[in-house]
Amino acid sequence: MEKQENGSEAPAPEPELKLYGSWASSYTHRVQLALRLKGLEFEYAEEDLGNKSEALLRHNPVHKKVPVLLHRGRPLAESVIILQYLDDAFPDTRPLLPSDPFLRALSRFWCHFADDKLGPAVGAVFASTGKEQEEAVRQVHENLAMLEAELREGEFKGRRFFGGDRVGLLDVVLGCGSYWLAVFEEVTGVRLVDADAFPLFHAWLRDFEAQEEVKETIPSVDRLLEYARGLRQMLLALAAGAGDGGSTGVPVSSAVDAPVAAAPPAPAPAAAAVDI
Amino acid sequence: MADEVILLDFWVSPFGQRCRIALLEKGISYEYSEQSLAQKSDLLLRSNPIHKKIPVLLHAGRPICESLIILEYIDETWSDKSPLLPFDNPYARSCARFWADYVDKKLFDSQTRLWKLKAGEADHEQAKRDMVETLQTLEKELGEKDYFGGDVFGFLDVVIVPFVAWFYAYERFGGFSVEEVCPRLVAWAKRCRERESVSKTISDPEKVYEFALYLKDKFGAK
What is the pTM of this model? Predict the structure, then answer.
């Protein structure tokens, strides 16, 4: 720090990039991973989702969620939008999106699929039991089959990653979330990703998780398991509390906010869906 | 033709209309193909096997699905004229994408609940409140600007404008005045209608209301 003329030290400058996130949020992991892949330094602020900071609420008043990225003080929200911003704002860094418009459209399509279909389906498996869970598992398998077909026969055929030889936008988006599959399998005892049924998806996920930057970003399996076990208990208790012993009657397709590892929030049933 | 453009669409769909407006703004010739949603064509099912929905843009035989993705594809492929997203301002591009995402998460859902649910029931009252909140949020985002993008008609204007044809239906189903709730948004809608691409594309509000009544009759809460 520079000394000013009167002898006091100048305050440290605001970091160019500051990320508000939550350690168990795969949406947060997407941004952390993207920043690491691009070699961009950033300051990280952990949010207690049961007690959101004034800063977070000010920077994302519309959705009040993490992640939020500040770039030179200006806030950006929604992980897939943040990732595309990084490509636009830092054109000299490794690009996440391909340059061809058709492949860009395809990447965006499958990112939306991950958040709109696959994610909620996996969340539903995790939040349910019995018949409802069976239906949710069927949904997950249907969605994985679509991805498998795309890897086998579609534009991404023959590629190691969706981004080609190296990890790109779609890898980051799908990958940060897919690590929950093994965790949820362990906690619920339900088989989600069968290596025989989905060999290409399985191989892709294994290669993704072996990347250095990915290993630096995803929390340890033990922490994820502990979190998932606590969350599962909470969700089942809510389901039981709803009275009919089976369904909560609320859609589990919206994102959860509260890592159970934090001070226990009292989530309204409507908030109880899984951020994965 | 190798680079022929076909749009699989449905006449009243605001999502399809976004694509039509963008194609007109860019001066792209294309074939419009009206689809039956009750009996989906082989072409539609082949082009969008995952969601089986319109709109789908076929360019040189390759399908692009989802209206916001189609808009960006059109902007990137025909980048020499009438940019939809500002090409030199990453932050403005992100804001446009953020609000487009907001519209797709909130507006269509609120409007569906408005026609689908029974008037007078608690959930219908909630749908009304949600719709008013959404409109007021968009009004606030527009602020004093002529267009959502600033001085120039752009991406976010294209994204939202087809829904102005539904304002009359919101009023009939919701029992509130859109002009009272969001006067600047209504002024913006009038301004957009002066553009040929918009006036040629968006539906007649009476026809939209009739269509919503048909949906209510078929799928609404009894």
Answer: 0.90
